Structure formats: C-alpha cells, structure tokens
From TrEMBL:
<dbReference type="InterPro" id="IPR004360">
    <property type="entry name" value="Glyas_Fos-R_dOase_dom"/>
</dbReference>
<dbReference type="InterPro" id="IPR029068">
    <property type="entry name" value="Glyas_Bleomycin-R_OHBP_Dase"/>
</dbReference>
<dbReference type="Pfam" id="PF00903">
    <property type="entry name" value="Glyoxalase"/>
</dbReference>
<dbReference type="InterPro" id="IPR037523">
    <property type="entry name" value="VOC_core"/>
</dbReference>
<feature type="domain" description="VOC">
    <location>
        <begin position="10"/>
        <end position="124"/>
    </location>
</feature>
<protein>
    <submittedName>
        <fullName>Catechol 2,3-dioxygenase-like lactoylglutathione lyase family enzyme</fullName>
    </submittedName>
</protein>
Length: 125
C-alpha cells in the first residue's frame, strides 16, 4: 500500500552538504569570501561544519579523497547576482559558467569553490 503524495506533511528547510578535502580552507573561503558565519562544528579537528548567511545554510563534511562532480551540486539564490559575480571575479574564483540572462528566468553564473564544488548562483530577472 502506498501513501498519497499530498499527504499533508509540511517540509522545512533543506541544506546542501558539500564534501571538502581541507576543512580550514573551505571554512576560510565560505566565511572570508562569501560572508558565511560558522554556527556549528563537530570534531577536533572539525570534520563537519554548518555555515549560515541570511536564509542560506551550508553543511561542510571533510572527505579527504573527494573528487568534485562535473556539475553544480548546489543552487544559491541571491538578491544581487552581479555584485557576487564581481566579488568572485576580483578574488580569482574559478567561474565555470559566465554571468548571463537565462531563458528560464534567472540571471545566473556558476563558480567552483577551492574543492571544485560547482555552485550555481541565480537571481530572478
């Protein structure tokens, strides 16, 4: 017997978990470049960390042998995509897909973090 898909369960937040090979480097990138704040860490040295900025939450997990996927692993909506693109470019962050207006209604670009995780950034047109 299967339950109906409209089962009246309300879903809450969902947070992306990014594997990283170097937790200190990832922490520095997301806090110093993107302005996230660490709200939790587990382990000494840290093997798991939660970062937040505004409504965004990101989980980092230490995986020393991790190889990044060749596609975006997270999508980040922002209010000023052009400003974030300028920051990323000025800091020498790898831009995987340049800033453009997409036919699906977003102005967007894709960058890669120091571990190669591709983050798709967008703002509604």
């Amino acid at each position: 017997m299967t339950e109906r898909l409209d089962h009246c369960i309300r879903f809450g937040r969902i947070a992306a978990t990014l594997p990283v090979r170097d937790m200190a480097r990832a922490h520095a990138f997301y806090t110093q470049v993107l302005g996230f704040t660490k709200t939790f860490e587990n382990g000494t040295p840290a093997r798991f960390m939660i970062l937040r900025r505004d409504a965004a939450e990101l989980h980092l997990t230490l995986q020393e042998s991790y190889e990044a996927a060749p596609f975006p692993v997270a999508h980040l909506m922002v209010e000023d995509v052009d400003a974030l693109h300028r920051i990323c470019t000025a800091r020498g962050i790898a831009i995987v897909k340049g800033l453009r207006d997409e036919d699906f209604g977003l102005r967007a670009f894709v960058f890669a973090d120091p571990d190669g995780n591709r983050i798709d950034v967008g703002q509604p047109l």
